[in-house]
Amino acid sequence: RPWASISSSLNGAVSGDSVILKPGTYIEPPFTVPAGVTLTSLTGLTSTTISSSNNSARFITQKQDTRLSGFSVVCPSGSFAGIYYDNPGGASIYDVTLKGTGKLAYVKGGILAADGIHVPGGGIIDKVYHVEAGRLQAVNTNVGNPNVSSSFYIEGGTNIILGTNLFNVQEAFHVASQDYVIQATNVYVDDNVDKHLTIAPGISGSS
To answer: What is the three-class DSSP state of 74?
Structure first.
């Protein structure tokens, strides 16, 4: 059964290939999606789940020009990212549900485009998006989990945020560093969100 795991399937994939997952739950060690490869599901996020078997390392590392599409990701606990991007060029995540704990998506460099990200209830989630550098383009993010400490934790980089709904979370936005750009349009933050915007001491800015 050479294709029984995602990791072994990706080891044989090259740029331009798609690895397509049948419905089910895949419990996997940390893995990397090679440059130019798409990881997608046959029937969508409600029937296909990828879960981390290791809580002491980041889970899914994307290389440039990769795409994750149509499944649920159960991220590792602690401070380790569920999806990690730090590459030249760009990568994308489309129609994905994020569950678990820790940092769900971490951008340290390059451009990560996220469209149709859902964070339902469950799990003690530190940050949905943690942006240290590079560029996050987040479209149609829906977060409704009261255990989310911060939906957008921004240490730097450029953050383009469109069509986002945040409700029941503890904090919508947290600006943690001086070096940042935030452009947001059609963002709804419900009245039941305790902190709409937290700005760290010493931070200044405009617009």
So the answer is: strand
